[in-house]
Amino acid sequence: MSHSHEDLPPVTTEVHDNSWSANLETPAHADDLDAVVEQAVDAVEMTTAGNHVNLVSHADHGHPETYLFDALEAAFGDSVSVEYVQQCGCGGHVTRVHREA
Predict the structure, then answer these.
(1) Which InterPro entries does the entry mention (predicted)?
(2) What is this structure's pTM?
(3) Any idea which architecture 20-99 has in CATH?
């Protein structure tokens, strides 16, 4: 079931001039894969060059390589590097996106 993306609070409202983690693992994210991808792109946009954001995605969507990697490459091209870090104990997944300097 898909919900309006406007109902989901933003993953961040500030530019991060450091490395940080974005929580894309809430129940609302579990229900809406499009929102996960949209907010992942937003999180990367809000991360300054030379830093990374860890995107923590819900287990319900499976491995992020199947839905997130291509979307990030399409949005950012060579200005980012995408790396799968690990699966969390809770089943979610951590993907690190580094903004190139």
Answers:
(1) rSAM_target_put
(2) 0.91
(3) 2-Layer Sandwich (3.30)
